[in-house]
Amino acid sequence: MKSIHKITVTVASILVVLITIVACTSTKEVYTPVLEKEVADSDQEFKIEKSGAQLWGEVCNRCHIAPSPSDYNDTDWETISLHMRVRANLTEKESKKIEEFLKSAN
Amino acid sequence: MKKLILSLFVFVFGYQLYGQTYNTFEPSKTQFMLRGYGHTGFEYMDSNDEAESTFLGLTYAPIFLYKHSDRLMFEAELEFKLEGNELEIGLEYADVMYVLNKNITVRAGKFLLPFGTFMERLHPAWINRLPNAPLGYGHDGIAPSSGIGVELRGAFDLGGPRLNYSIYSTNGPRLNDGSEEPEEAGILQFENFEDNNLAKAYGGRIGILPFSDSSAELGFSAYSTSGTGEEDSQYEDVGAFLFALDFSYVKPISPLKGIVDIKAQYNNSNVDTATFIEVHEDGDAEEYSFDNQSNSFYAQLSYRPTMVESDFMKKLEFVGRYSDFNAPEGAEWEEASVQYAFGLNYWLSWRSVIKLSYQTTETEGGHGADGITNTDGLFIHWAIGF
């Protein structure tokens, strides 16, 4: 078991270093907010990426039934969005787009 | 005098009008939210011709969220439930999370462990499609549910596929050495709030979503520690290595006119062999040891006919689950169990569900018991998230 533990700790350490390097080098800013224009420009988004409504249907349903936008106000959705981003390990773009959709549809 | 009153009126009224016109009433960046879930219901159990039935007191689990800023949040979940004739209060988790950048979030405190997905994401009553957890989870289970420590987690968009990760270090489990509960000697106890030794546990999970519609997710989790016993005891260097494989597939399928949801997880626990003491009724003590390996598995299939025309049928959900649990041969808690569960759910809303379930469990051994025990159960639960 000692050798397995050493391997686990070594792999975990390497992963921490790799993730830190990749995460920091792929991010020009320390924290990259998704631009409102980027989210709202739905015509362009549909050509390239999924809309917040699509992601809401796909991502939330992975664990539970997708929530009704009208059940919370904008401020609540901001809090829930941050909580779910961490809890469900969502990407920043997924959580921001879903949040913008919920706020626009409530 | 009239001029004075008129001036005052204009000033006061004008000030109010100005304030109402130009005050944007922007919400505070900090926000406190109370969320959570609860469930209640009725259960009937028949075990080897001994029947019992009971209504359940409400299990209430409030979740306290405090968003300090767009990056910093505190979260805590309590659980209140009636166990026997006593009120049990538990702290499921209480941690602080900080978003370092778009790919890394750090969490510290007591947090749910990403060992597979069931305990971290699927166990709340309004999310779990059946009234209880599969075999191998919960009290005396082999899958750790929470730990006290620090964690890095995040996700990467790979241009279609997505990858999420979590790496953590916690106080780790405590080995039950049998001194107080001889029938549980060798079991790992994960509720180790105050560390009993210097060894920490290290673990993590990597999940990959290969399809751009997020319909499937495959995950691998590992959890390792070099010591689980009390410091300066003969069990101090008893190490443990656990791993889990999990799978999820959720997709609307038009020919089936509904959403198919498949979940599965395999857990394996391997603890170093140690020598324990068994005290017989005549007072004689005997040393014994066993190969301390356990495993459990569950696979669940559910189907919601969301695309049919009938509003009533749209709210129904059909669930089936298989689970098994194998505890080490030679241990006082040696056990081999198999469970089949079937359920019919009616969704009142996206977060409120009435569950009707039948479960049958065959248990061989288990905590000093001999022979085979068959247990049939009927459950009616109402779960609600808020």
Polypeptide structure, described:
The complex is a heterodimer of chains A (106) and B (386). By secondary structure, chain A is mostly helical. Chain A has two domains: 1-32; 33-106, no CATH class. Helices cover 68% and strands 0% of the residues of chain A. In chain A, helix 4 crosses helix 6 and helix 5 runs antiparallel to helix 6 (92-105). Chain B has one domain (28-385): Porin, CATH 2.40.160.10. In chain B, strand 3 (72-83) and strand 4 (86-101) form a beta hairpin. The radius of gyration of chain B is 26 Å and the shape is globular. The termini of chain B are far apart. The relative contact order of chain B is 0.13. At the A-B interface, helix 1, helix 4, helix 5 and helix 6 of A face strand 1, strand 4, strand 5, helix 2 and strand 6 of B.
What's the short version?
Helices cover 68% and strands 0% of the residues of chain A.
How many strands appear in the DSSP assignment of chain B? 20
| Percent of residues in β-strands of chain B | over 45%
Given the helix and strand composition of chain B, which structural class is it? mainly beta
Strand coverage percent of chain A: under 5%
Most strands sheet of chain B? 16 strands, antiparallel, barrel
End-to-end C-alpha gap of chain B: 58 Å
**Residue runs with pLDDT of under 50 for 5 or more positions of chain A:** none
Oligomer: heterodimer
The value of Rg of chain A in angstroms is 18 Å
- Main sheet properties of chain A: none
C-alpha termini separation of chain A: 53 Å
Residue-averaged pLDDT of chain A: 81
Residues in helices of chain B, as a percent range: under 10%
Q: Please report the number of helical segments of chain A.
A: 6
Structural class determined from secondary elements of chain A: mainly alpha
Number of domains of chain B: 1
